[in-house]
Amino acid sequence: MDPALEKLIRLHDLEKMEEEISSEEYMKIISKLRQEEDEEELKKMRDEALEAIRREKEKIIKELNKINPTYYNRYRMFKNAYGHGIAQVVEGICLNCFSRVPTSFITQHGKLLRCPNCGIFLYVPKGKKTEGERL
Amino acid sequence: MLKNLLKKEHLILDMKAKTKEEALKELVSVFQLPEDKEQIILETLKKRESIGSTGIGKGIAIPHARSLVLDKVYLAVGRSKEGVDFDALDGQPVHLFFMLCAPPQDPNTTYLLALGKIASLARKLAKNREYMNIDDPDEFINYLLQLEGEQ
């Protein structure tokens, strides 16, 4: 897999984790799991987790900037616009703009690709069929 | 709700893992994902563990994560008779694992609902360690579903 693509996926997954840990719904479940009802203790735990994620994100961004400084800026731009900086391709469809991507993308699995319609970075899973393959 | 996620082929009743890393790897392996996806999910799960163990104590752990490389919700259940050192909150070895992995988009909120269900189930399982004595996969799944139904 392209190293930049791998880092963008890791960054995306970390940001999902960050959103999750920040949500009240998730923290209610964690409180139930840990049988911890002390709100201060839970808040402390959440703050520490968010700080650890922030440090990890910084590390990835640094590595990404070494490969190409424009990648992170572009990722952030899309994240600000759409809520995510990279999207999955499922059944040949970009899950950000829901337009069909070229059939040739399927053979380029693992490469850093962008949606020709909306421009977002794409993760194309191996073996997912595009329209071209189905025809 | 867990009925749709609990699958016999995603159940390991005799886990071989001795360490946290081995346990995560063994559990992810049941999903039979391509190697690159498996690596990314493992990395995400390890990161999640590094910010706070999902070993909730009383012999149970619930490793969980979302990843862009997945397109559906996966649940793996594993039991280790010997126990795994998982840095659990109570410092005790973990004997029962529920591993929940999901894609970022989850319109039916299956992931959070399942996590909530597993949390309730775990509390029941912690009280009664009957799960240590069931060696038939169908019986094991039925036992979990029965407990879920009692909630």
Overview of the molecule:
The complex is a heterodimer of chains A (135) and B (151). With 135 residues, chain A is of the alpha+beta class. Chain A has one domain. Chain A has five helices and four strands, in the order ααααββββα. In chain A, strands 2-1-4-3 form a four-stranded mixed β-sheet. In chain A, helix 1 (3-22) packs antiparallel against helix 3 and helix 3 (39-67) packs across helix 4 (69-82). The mean pLDDT of chain B is 91. Chain B is an alpha/beta fold and 151 residues long. Chain B is built from four helices and six strands; from the N terminus they run βααβββββαα. Chain B has helices spanning 20-29, 35-50, 110-127, 137-149; strands at 11-12, 55-57, 60-61, 64-66, 74-84, 94-102. Chains A and B meet through helix 1, helix 2, helix 3 and strand 1 of A and helix 2 and helix 3 of B.
Query: What is the domain total for the residues of chain B?
Result: 1
Distance between the termini of chain A: 28 Å
Strand order of the largest sheet of chain A: 2-1-4-3
Taken from the alpha-carbon principal axes, the silhouette of chain B is globular
H/E topology pattern of chain A: HHHHEEEEH
Figure out the total of helices of chain A. 5
Q: In the CATH hierarchy, what is the architecture of chain B at level 2?
A: 3-Layer(aba) Sandwich
Note the beta-strand portion of chain A. 5-15%
- Element-by-element helix/strand order of chain B: EHHEEEEEHH
